[in-house]
Design the sequence.
């Protein structure tokens, strides 16, 4: 007769997540953008689920008017190295962006490393986001199969000043030779 | 206010901005910057829902109000909104008997139509002689979404945008010690004001005394715009079994000065239907000649010399279907009171012989009464204005002016 010993099942840690890994990354990208807006004292309004969410994730609310943003968060790129990052663009996105009368910015939040537990580093002297965001203005960009985001355009609180000037310019007479 | 989902159109928004003191700057490709003090708001030139919502949010922050309040204020800047409320019955929660709903709507329209005619020409019994201009106002009226919390039907009457404000506020010139002009009340506002003051007059002269109106009361009702048709329609609403009370509350269009002291809200209980019906019957029987009585807003105040014991006001009114301005001579104390009535946006009711001379303005030299129309004081209770003693304070002031 063979004795069979049953090892009682040890329950693992309870899964607390409500987002999928990809969903978590998308939320992190928006939260990162919100953090930069907060630092600059500028509001961020996420596009309501009731509205047409295609190609516009939210609005950065400046004093005079808002700019529109599309945020993508990815672990496919490294923060250092390379001068650009490219992202595939849908034809419908371009139609939406080119139809906007206020500036539209494409923001690429790069997670480096990609592994979810490493996104935040809780150090003794503070919390480090293992992420960086780069941006490109797309409402004036020519349509193509992909969007090229220069790594030189790192999104910081100072960037938002430039965006605010871009927004104001849309509501002011254009200088000769200006866009 | 009327509909939570309503967003003002670009035209409504621009009118509101102008009315609130914002200045439009030269536009760019997306729209124009509107400025007030150091605050700037970018207003789009195309009807982009998200951008309009952004403008409302920025305006709300600038005005320390909620976005919903600003949205309603902009949307209804040029509308007098009368909220008709049927209440006090357990059956009325989110629904109303269809029969009752139909009766309320038809009767409310009949009441508005009657006042649109009497706003043009006061009379006790309209029969089928409705005013064309009055009917035009009724045709333009809109019905808003019904509101929760008993059963409320908003009736919206569009008011034309007033001309640019007169910068010549109280002025002194060589000819006059004091001369002030103000824009006259648009006819559409006169219609809604007549509706509101008719409700008030029925409440105070018919319902509250709880007796059939006297001949004098009937005259006073007619002077304020009440007609047999108005009372019959009101009684028809009150007779509905599902209704305990009928109330009309007016939100005056912010773009035109509102009658400040007129009650915004007048409620009449269902039990009063018999009284209102008897008033309708009296109005049918009684012939009222309103040729010596007219009402309207004050559009001019004039006082020629410091020692002149009389001042003169001009009242914009409608005499037998024709828009007219009548000059009314008042003793100084009453003239000073007229300044208060004017600044409160109150219309006045004037009684007296109207002097008509070819090529000259219409005049009432000795009015037997000139009081605010929302003051339900009957003529026998007051002294004719020409016999009114000058209050001591005003007499002292005149001494000082000398």
Sequence:
């Amino acid at each position: 007769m063979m004795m069979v010993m049953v090892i009682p099942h040890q329950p693992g840690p309870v899964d607390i997540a409500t987002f999928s890994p990809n969903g978590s990354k998308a939320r992190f990208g928006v939260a990162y953008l919100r953090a930069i807006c907060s630092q600059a004292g500028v509001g961020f309004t996420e596009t309501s689920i009731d509205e047409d969410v295609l190609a516009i994730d939210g609005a950065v609310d400046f004093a005079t008017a808002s700019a529109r943003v599309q945020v993508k968060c990815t672990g496919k790129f490294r923060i250092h190295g390379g001068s650009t990052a490219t992202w595939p663009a849908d034809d419908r996105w371009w139609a939406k962006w080119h139809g906007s009368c206020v500036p539209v910015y494409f923001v690429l939040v790069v997670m480096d490393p990609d592994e979810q537990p490493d996104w935040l580093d809780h150090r003794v002297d503070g919390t480090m986001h293992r992420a960086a965001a780069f941006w490109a203005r797309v409402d004036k960009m020519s349509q193509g199969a992909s969007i090229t985001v220069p790594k030189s355009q790192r999104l910081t609180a100072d960037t938002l000043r430039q965006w605010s000037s871009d927004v104001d310019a849309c509501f002011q007479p254009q200088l000769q030779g200006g866009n | 206010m009327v509909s939570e989902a309503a967003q003002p159109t670009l035209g409504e928004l621009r009118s509101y901005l102008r009315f609130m003191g914002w200045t439009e700057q030269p536009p760019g490709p997306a729209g124009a910057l509107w400025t007030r003090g150091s605050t700037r708001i970018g207003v789009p030139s195309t009807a982009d829902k998200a951008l309009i919502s952004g403008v409302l949010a920025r305006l709300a922050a600038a005005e320390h109000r909620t976005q919903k309040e600003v949205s309603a204020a902009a949307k209804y800047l040029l509308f007098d909104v009368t909220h008709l409320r049927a209440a006090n019955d357990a059956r009325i929660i989110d629904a109303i008997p269809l029969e009752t709903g139909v009766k309320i709507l038809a009767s409310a329209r009949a009441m508005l139509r009657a006042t649109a005619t009497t706003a043009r020409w006061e009379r006790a019994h309209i029969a089928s002689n409705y005013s064309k201009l009055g009917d035009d106002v009724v045709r333009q009226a809109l019905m808003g979404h019904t509101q929760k919390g008993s059963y409320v039907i908003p009736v919206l009457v569009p008011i034309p945008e007033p001309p640019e404000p007169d910068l010549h506020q109280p002025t002194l010139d060589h000819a006059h010690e004091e001369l002030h002009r103000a824009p006259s009340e648009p006819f559409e506002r006169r219609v809604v004001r007549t509706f509101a003051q008719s409700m008030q007059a029925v409440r105070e002269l018919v319902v509250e005394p709880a007796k059939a109106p006297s001949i004098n009361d009937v005259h006073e009702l007619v002077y304020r715009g009440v007609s047999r048709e108005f009372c019959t329609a009101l009684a028809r609403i009150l007779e509905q079994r599902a209704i305990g009370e009928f109330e009309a509350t007016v939100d005056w269009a912010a773009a035109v000065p509102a009658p400040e002291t007129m009650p915004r809200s007048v409620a009449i209980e269902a039990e009063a239907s018999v009284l209102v019906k008897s008033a309708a019957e009296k109005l049918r029987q009684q012939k009222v000649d309103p040729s010596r009585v007219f009402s309207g807003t004050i559009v001019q105040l004039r006082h020629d010399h410091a020692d002149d014991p009389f001042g003169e006001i001009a009242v914009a009114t409608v005499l037998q279907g024709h828009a007219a301005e009548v000059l009314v001579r008042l003793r100084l104390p009453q003239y000073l009171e007229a300044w208060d009535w004017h600044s409160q946006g109150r219309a006045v009711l004037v009684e007296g012989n109207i002097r008509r001379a070819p090529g000259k303005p219409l005049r009432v030299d000795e009015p037997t009464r000139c009081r605010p129309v929302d003051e339900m004081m009957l003529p026998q209770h007051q002294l004719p204005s020409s016999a009114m003693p000058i209050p001591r304070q005003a007499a002292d002031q005149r001494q000082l002016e000398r």
Summary: Chain A touches chain B at residues 51, 59, 61, 63-66, 101-102, 167-174 (CB under 8 Å). The first strand of chain A starts at residue 43 and ends at 46.
